[in-house]
Amino acid sequence: MKDIILTGDRPTGRLHLGHYVGSLKNRVKMQNETDFEKMYVMIADSQALTDNFDNPEKIRENLIEVALDYLSVGLDPAKVTFFVQSQIPELTELTFYFLNLVTLSRLERNPTVKSEIKLRNFETSLPAGFLIYPVSQAADILLFDANIVPVGEDQEPMLEQARELARSFNNIYGKTFVEPKAVLPETKIARRMPGIDGGAKMSKSLGNAIYLADDKKTVKKKVMSMYTDPNHINIDDPGRVEGNIVFTYLDVFSKPEHFKEFLPDYENLDALKDHYRRGGLGDVKCKKFLIKVLEDELEPIRNKRADLEKDLEKVFDILEDGTRRAREAGQKKIEEVKKAMGINYFVDKDLIKTLQEKYK
Ligand code: TRP
Prior knowledge:
Blueprint: E1 4-9, H1 17-33, E2 38-43, H2 45-49, H3 56-72, E3 81-84, H4 89-98, H5 104-109, H6 111-119, H7 128-131, H8 133-142, E4 148-150, H9 156-173, E5 181-183, H10 188-191, H11 216-224, H12 245-253, H13 256-262, H14 269-278, H15 283-309, H16 312-341, H17 349-359
Parallel strand pairs: 1-2, 2-3, 4-5
Tryptophan (TRP) binds at residues 6-10, 44, 47, 137, 140-141, 149, 151, 155.
């Protein structure tokens, strides 16, 4: 059996370099190099509403932003089925049946949800929909028979709950679901891309992100404000490259040919780092190089985005078409689910016959 891959994002903001390094690049690689049965990428708008129910406008705006980001990094609708969660009622249906198979105390133990509740000040008034979103996420995965779910580490508890739900359902109603597995980012940097301010992980709420849709000027400004080595005050001072975000980003994005093209005085990144450590190399020179390196990656993405922005109808068509195809798969699966549960009354032609026998 070939893999069925499914992943998704909440449309709560534009995607940034953290998403790019942590997941988008890997999705494009999977799309191009893996021989899979199906690859789904879902925009999890219903899930985003569980903590943004009072701001649906935000979710609607970001639905298209996220779709534009997906397409501009090179995810290909000919290979990937994109779909919008809220437009697949079978997901809600499955969630409702799954809710019978989980206890309140189990939901309250989910560590990711626990920390999110704190973060959102939901301790005293917790929306039920928020508490149960891992069940809905299990439905997202299981309705499509996905066995591979590429996600960040924080999503491992969701996968654990999805496996438990698959197991309980299979035990009670007969084998219906496969147990999915999370595939986590391979490198440390992919798991945690720091923001431009240094320490913390890049995130929208911390205001330390470089967005895929940022224009050239903005990228330049953000790089020029990047955290480097606070003790590297004069050019001649020896500098540290560890924890120096400019070098962290160069580690991720620079290629040997960038040196030939933009910084021919240095053979490679090691040579640049050596000079920085010795002293005599200024931050501005490194930052200017990083801007060129980043632009090499971001410019094609930005150009593609600009083209797509002019053809929003096409973007909507891609989402609509993917959603239709995903729904077809979901409808088939929910029939299987109802059959397993014995609630497919009008499809099961034997049922009426059995009843007729009984009342004869
Ligand atoms: N919870 C995920 C996130 O915040 C988004 C998501 C929703 C998801 N449903 C999913 C991811 C199913 C993978 C599979 O990033």
